Amino acid sequence: MSGEAALLRRLRAMVSDPAARDLMDDVAVLPTMGQQLVLTSDTMVEGVHFRPDDPPETVGWKLAAVNLSDLAAKGAAPNGCLLSYTLAGDDAWDAAFLDGLGRAIGRFGLHLIGGDTVGLPAGAPRVLGLTAIGEVPAGQPVPGRSGARPGDRLYVSGPVGDAGAGLAMLAEGVAEPAELIRAYRVPVPHLTLGQSIALMTHAMMDVSDGLLIDARRMARASACAVEIDTVPLSEPYARYRGSSVEARLAAATAGDDYVLLVALPADREPPHGLIPVGRFKEGEGLSLRLDGKAVHLPERLGFEHG
Amino acid sequence: MSGEAALLRRLRAMVSDPAARDLMDDVAVLPTMGQQLVLTSDTMVEGVHFRPDDPPETVGWKLAAVNLSDLAAKGAAPNGCLLSYTLAGDDAWDAAFLDGLGRAIGRFGLHLIGGDTVGLPAGAPRVLGLTAIGEVPAGQPVPGRSGARPGDRLYVSGPVGDAGAGLAMLAEGVAEPAELIRAYRVPVPHLTLGQSIALMTHAMMDVSDGLLIDARRMARASACAVEIDTVPLSEPYARYRGSSVEARLAAATAGDDYVLLVALPADREPPHGLIPVGRFKEGEGLSLRLDGKAVHLPERLGFEHG
């Protein structure tokens, strides 16, 4: 049996949703009942978004997680996904990748319903894409980036910087604290929190490119200014990098955090799980105050795209 | 302005559907009204599914067309699509690709509603993915591969082999007949025909990997045997390659045809546009008769995957 045939057999064993037609058709067929569908597509390139030596099961997990994080930020319940998979001729890698993907989509209720597998020229980096579909009840607002208002408070749903530190540790060959490497390789999407707060937010998105750059994007889309006054760090991060202004700047520009970034009215008691990091103001632009003092913005605020 | 920023500006200029949220959010939000959604995802790899020297506007057109062909085979009306795009650092290529993609999706009513753009390591081949969404009214059957029955007639919606001959001509540096190169680079999905016949078919799919292999797939999924007795050739194909048994075998195994493959009851008058090519029988397997004589099947029936 060829590698591709083995892969297809594994993929078929992963599907149960009738929308998938057992992956024996060229399409998935999804019945709808008047809900709103939330669709997102994220692609990960070997050597760019993951390291060639990352364990393949973590690459599979992460591909699902980064897409699920986008659904989380819209308060959407996961529904189905379509996988675009490049075969690089390493059957063990493919099998482990699918194990990791399967664990993530199984845990969060995202059903594999379709996709495509394609060959690659020899030596070409893998390019792995997932299109994920979530549901929001009809009539329920879907939070965007653009609803924040002057006076709103800005929150995140967890500390930032862990994944960036984990990636740096891998480049340097450092193994501890393992929590940071785990944050880079096996992020957990904040789906339950996203669904529970979607109706009270003015704006919501996930932090994928860095707290500073993503906060500026939300402010721009909302025609506000935003001031960040706190960069929440995890205990392992603070132990490894300290909590100096430099360490906090590194955490706020690292990306790959997959925490929610949430704008709430100032008079709204924040739900459990949200950490205040700043506020929106009249005007435009991003400013940063740490320990009560204005901090000059770094030249690079995060990953520039999108 | 960076190449990526220019690309995003072009992409934003292409969108008008409110589901796209102006591509300023991380997701698309698609309202539904009880219809069935048909979802398909096809990925094209540079050097595998298209030639590095193919004009980029034809690559953009073709990426849309191959996905639209899958919607056509389900009788679905095109709705929205999400693009997964790799940036290889050639702004002119990117712009021309988007022009071609835009022409195809504009012509067939497929709205760009989201996606992702990612960087590539230097020298890596482009990997271009599209997830396309179509609609079928609630309750209307969506034809699959598996409904053909013994006695059914098999039809295609056009000649086969043109695209394969066009690809071979490009490899050989032959420029005429230009129609064959055009068939390879700029296929036209048979959407109107697919929608008009979906309710009368027992089974329908598109021919993407070759008439023989795709007919065998339909027969297998339907637990029938299939006999092919005709390989319809275009006039330019017959002029270029002749119509010998060998020429017809080449046409039936070439792939990239994007015509519809349709099983209809024997007593059903075929609608205009369908060409009879064979019939389903009790049993299993594929057989081929040309000019009234059994023909030994070639070792390679088409492109093996899926």
What's the topology here?
2 copies of one chain form a homodimer.
Chain A: H1 3-14, E1 28-31, E2 36-45, H2 56-72, E3 77-87, H3 91-108, E4 111-119, E5 127-136, E6 153-156, H4 162-172, H5 178-185, H6 191-197, E7 203-207, H7 211-221, E8 225-228, H8 235-241, H9 245-252, E9 259-264, E10 275-281, E11 285-290, E12 293-294
Parallel strand pairs in A: 3-4, 8-11
Antiparallel strand pairs in A: 2-5, 3-5, 6-9, 6-10, 7-9, 8-10, 11-12
Helix pairs in contact in A: 1-3, 2-3, 2-6, 4-5
Structure description:
2 copies of one chain form a homodimer. Chain A has helices at 3-14, 56-72, 91-108, 162-172, 178-185, 191-197, 211-221, 235-241, 245-252; strands spanning 28-31, 36-45, 77-87, 111-119, 127-136, 153-156, 203-207, 225-228, 259-264, 275-281, 285-290, 293-294. Chain A is an alpha+beta fold and 306 residues long. Chain A has 2 domains: 3-136, 60s Ribosomal Protein L30, Chain: A, CATH 3.30.1330; 153-294, Phosphoribosyl-aminoimidazole Synthetase, Chain A, domain 2. In chain A, the strands form 2 sheets. A 7-stranded mixed beta sheet of chain A has the order 7-9-6-10-8-11-12. In chain A, strand 3 (77-87), helix 3 and strand 4 form a beta-alpha-beta unit. Chain A is globular, with a radius of gyration of 20 Å. The interface between A and B is large, with 69 and 69 residues.
